[in-house]
Amino acid sequence: MHGRIHIRNTQKIMKNDLNVSLRPLRDKIDSIDEQLLQLLNARASIALEVGEVKKRFGASVFRPEREFQVISRLQKSNAGPLFGDNLAAIWREIMSASRALEKASTVVYLGPVGTYSEQAALSYFGQSMIGRPCPSLDEVFRSVEAGGADFGVIPVENSTEGVVSRTLDLLLQSPLSISGEIALPIHHNLMTQSGNLDGVMRICAHAQSLAQCQHWLTAHYSHLDRQAVSSNAEGARLAAKDATIGAIAGDAAAIQYGLQIAYSHIQDDPHNRTRFVVIGVLDPEATGYDQTSLILSVPNRAGAVVALLEPLARHGVSMTRFESRPAKSGAWEYFFYVDIEGHRNDLNVAAALEELQHHAAYYKILGSYPRAN
């Protein structure tokens, strides 16, 4: 009895000593927080003035190139101990809240709630956006084209499984342009109602996610059926209603649908990433760290592709991506999806594109926009 009393007294003394040691540090933090609050409100007031100027000139509230430049400048001058990515996340939320004082951006993405597409949208536009899930990629495009949303966020390619074919087809057909990109690390979790696989008979996820985890699933749960569904969040929604279903999805889906993670990071490639792009009607100005996306086709003659791309090399323009898609004309013709470094208004890029256009049977610029960090 006396031993327990002694332990409790010792713990109480240690707690008091801890509080005494922390009090001056916490007072400093409280004082800095008050200063930060005043400065953030001062910044927001100026942002409102900026909004009024933009309104007079009919300019867009959201300018991705400006926000890119703000974050890049701060990252370069940052002395730490905050990391650059953490600093970027903080300032992105500050700018998102400031934009919302003028007009919150309405952003559509492939739903339901809890998908990686939603996570990409939040990482780009911040928590102050008005997010709206869509049941398909086609509906994302339709919503933005019809003016029901300011922007759409769509997946383009995965580092493991390659391009999202439907996205490429829609980019060809749509009048919308690309104004930004997000490279999102993809960490897949296997989740169930109970947090274990007892009684689970099938695993539901998007087809690409099942493919990205196929070796892990085969090694550990080869006996379970695998069912492709419209999205990972849809798989999580089904698992929340049926204890015999496991789902592959991200942390957000587990929280959204009340599931327990049985295994985390089950993707076969530990560096698995998905590239998303932002679609809309914005035409960002050059930042010095840009990318231009094109769709091209060539006449059916020998050496046509070489002739098409030769101006890029001659003007020192680097090509970072080259994908082909059937033209669906029945004549074995192809469209080429090309990404190049630089903005279309850069002198060398503009010169290369002018020459390239003369060699192309089809030529479409999807947009010039800041590259993902």
UniProtKB/TrEMBL annotation:
Keyword Isomerase: yes
EC number from the UniProt entry: 4.2.1.51, 5.4.99.5
Domain ACT intervals: 293-370
The Prephenate dehydratase domain, residue ranges: 106-281
Subcellular location: Cytoplasm
Keyword Disulfide bond: no
Family annotation (PROSITE patterns): ACT, CHORISMATE_MUT_2, PREPHENATE_DEHYDR_2, PREPHENATE_DEHYDR_3
Reaction(s) catalysed (UniProt annotation): prephenate + H(+) = 3-phenylpyruvate + CO2 + H2O; chorismate = prephenate
Pathway: Metabolic intermediate biosynthesis; prephenate biosynthesis; prephenate from chorismate: step 1/1; Amino-acid biosynthesis; L-phenylalanine biosynthesis; phenylpyruvate from prephenate: step 1/1
Keyword line: Amino-acid biosynthesis, Aromatic amino acid biosynthesis, Cytoplasm, Isomerase, Lyase, Multifunctional enzyme, Phenylalanine biosynthesis
InterPro entries: ACT-like_dom_sf, ACT_dom, Chor_mutase/pphenate_deHydtase, Chorismate_II_sf, CM_dom_sf, CM_II_prokaryot, G/b/e-P-prot_chorismate_mutase, Preph_deHydtase
Primary site of residence: cytoplasm
Pfam family, one: ACT
Segments forming domain Chorismate mutase: 16-106
The protein's role, per its UniProt record: Catalyzes the Claisen rearrangement of chorismate to prephenate and the decarboxylation/dehydration of prephenate to phenylpyruvate.
Annotated protein name in UniProt: Bifunctional chorismate mutase/prephenate dehydratase
